[in-house]
Design goal:
D-amino Acid Aminotransferase, Chain A, domain 1, 380 residues
Length: 380
């Protein structure tokens, strides 16, 4: 009889970046054999997958060929060839998150419409086609977001006035009204095929204004008990309304008048859950495996307060990766460094992260402030 562990079971991942790498690190503990597909021959998973295939995750035939002998397919990025995954699903391959869910989430326009149709609070928005931005000066200020293909802060432009329109995208986009927010929060939630659902304590995020991606987060978030309860409720409501199997990151704005608005969701392990490796009973990567394999979901209790800081490529860096200050970090107690195995540094590229732990949130913030710039990823 075929089991989910051992050589007879094949788990495929579309994408072979750092998220896939951390999934594999958990999968090894359970003897789950992981196969990955990515167009980068030096992708982080390329040396540690049971088998790595170099090819495009957006090419129909490539994805179909990769997946046809797999028992289960998952993704580490939304921008994949959904039509091929639908064909694989029709052929009996399990695909989680389901292709219909990926269709909703990978297109930010469809995603925003999903919130509206399901009564999920979100910022006001407009959907526009190429060349239409000049017709929306009455909506300023807003963020313009590519409907598909954007990630890690790419595909977003801030429009404060019509003078910014010369840098606008010439493609279908979402115009999202600026929100006067107090904090940016995130909740990771998981659901298996049996319908079991569990969520993680809310985290608080700070973004790098230049790179427009998460630079720092800490857990637990400093919010009221009522706000914590509401964030958990909304995250669970979203994954249930999607009828999704897998792990889902839900990003929120907490407005200055005390309301939660959903910003974006991601149907995979997420940057806002990296701290769970050291700080929670079950890491988000193990939880992802549990959910897609339809295993009992793991406890999400916080073991200790934690902060996660991304290690980004330094400005103007471009070359072989060199990590300056690693020894300083490793000399500190309660520090856990994760390097993603990317050979080349690029400006603001995610090269790794480190997690800081401490007995209290106050100690954590002091430690994080002191150490946040101690390591630099430089191209040599």
């Amino acid at each position: 009889m075929k089991t989910w562990y051992g050589k007879d079971f094949k788990l495929g991942i579309l994408g072979a970046g750092q998220l896939g790498r951390m999934i594999i690190q958990e999968a090894i503990n359970w003897n789950v054999h992981v196969y990955t597909l990515d167009s980068d021959p030096e992708a982080p998973c390329s040396k540690i997958s049971h088998e790595f295939v170099c090819g495009s995750i957006t090419d129909y035939e490539t994805v179909l060929h990769f997946g046809k002998d797999k028992d289960l397919i998952t993704v580490e990025i939304e921008n994949v060839k959904v039509e091929a995954l639908e064909e694989l699903e029709r052929g009996g391959v399990s695909v989680f998150p389901q292709p219909r869910v990926l269709r909703i989430i990978r297109d930010k326009g469809i995603q925003k419409q999903f919130y509206k149709d399901n009564g999920i609070p979100t910022a006001d928005f407009r959907l526009i086609e190429s060349g239409e931005i000049n017709q929306h000066t009455d909506f300023l200020p807003f963020a313009q977001k590519l409907r598909t293909g954007g990630y890690d802060g790419k595909g977003v432009q801030i429009m404060q006035s019509s003078s910014d329109f010369d840098k606008s995208f010439d493609a279908p986009t979402v115009l999202e009204k600026f929100v006067d927010f107090e904090k940016e929060l995130a909740v990771i939630v998981a659901r298996n095929k049996n319908g079991e659902v569990i969520s993680y304590p809310t985290v608080e995020c700070e973004f790098n204004p230049q790179a427009n991606l998460v630079e720092f987060l800490f857990s637990p978030a400093e919010i009221s008990a009522d706000m914590e309860k509401e964030a958990q409720r909304m995250a669970i409501d979203i994954i249930q309304k999607l009828d999704m199997v897998g792990i889902l990151a839900v990003e929120f704005f907490l407005t200055k008048d005390g309301k939660l608005l959903v910003n974006e969701i991601a149907p995979r392990p997420h940057n806002s859950g990296h701290h769970t490796i050291e700080c929670n009973v079950t890491s988000q990567f193990e939880q992802h495996l549990r959910s897609i394999l339809n295993l009992p979901l793991g406890a999400t209790d916080l073991i200790q307060p934690g902060a996660m800081i991304n290690i980004l490529g330094e400005p103007n860096s471009n070359g072989t990766a060199y990590y300056q200050g690693m020894e300083v970090l490793l000399a500190e107690p309660g520090i856990y460094v994760h390097i993603y195995g990317k050979e080349k540094v690029k400006e603001f590229r995610k090269m790794g992260h480190f997690t800081i732990t401490a007995p209290t949130v106050e100690d954590l913030k002091e430690k994080a402030e002191r150490l946040k710039n101690s390591i630099k990823a430089i191209g040599k």
